[in-house]
UniProtKB/TrEMBL annotation:
Listed name of the protein: Uncharacterized protein
InterPro entries: Protein_beta
Top-level taxonomy: Bacteria, Pseudomonadati, Pseudomonadota, Alphaproteobacteria, Sphingomonadales
């Protein structure tokens, strides 16, 4: 990269990669781990950052393989994806066509909640949702909600890792209080 980019010519360069598996072959009830090699490679890049004219910024495909962006019309499978510091964790349940239908997500969340890397419910909104599912609280949600909570957690963990990698300190800020419509006038 240093041969391609001259000093002070580019403001930002983004390095994008994924090590999320293309098509993991899992049966219902299985939990599998896949190394987050994309993050490990980025840590290696940061370890020699002085050799780069511009330090590349991190970008990943989160919890998807790039070819999975094609829309499909199929009944969803109850599944949750989770990121730890070192692994992508894939927890698969039954199809929503069989058994308890969308309640099939409850045992998936309960299984995920047992892993040692599981963060607390207040780590992110996604974690809170997963903990509620694991405890059988609230509604089951749907495939979009399951993807949202997994993605929300992934963004929180990557933010934490980038903050630590770049030595950025985080100040606690007061929670946002949403104004009522008439207060905005």
């Amino acid at each position: 990269m240093a041969r391609l980019i001259s000093q002070n010519t580019w403001l930002r360069v983004f390095w994008s990669a994924t090590s999320f598996p293309d098509k993991p072959k899992l049966k219902p009830g299985m939990l599998a781990r896949f190394p987050r090699s994309d993050w490990k490679v980025y840590e290696a890049i940061l370890s020699i950052k002085d050799e780069f004219p511009v330090v590349p910024m991190f970008s990943d495909y989160m919890l998807e393989f790039p070819s999975d962006y094609k829309p499909m019309r199929v009944s969803p499978t109850a599944k949750l994806l989770y990121s730890s510091e070192n692994d992508y964790i894939y927890c698969k349940g039954n199809s929503t066509k069989i058994g308890e239908k969308y309640k099939n997500i409850f045992p998936v969340a309960a299984q995920l909640a047992l892993i040692s890397e599981m963060k607390s419910a207040n780590y992110s909104l996604g974690n809170s949702y997963i903990h509620d599912l694991a405890n059988g609280k609230g509604k089951t949600g749907n495939a979009s909600m399951w993807r949202w909570c997994s993605t929300d957690h992934h963004l929180a963990i990557v933010d934490e890792q980038l903050t630590r990698a770049f030595g950025i300190s985080r100040e606690r800020v007061a929670p946002i209080i949403h104004a009522e419509q008439l207060q905005l006038v």
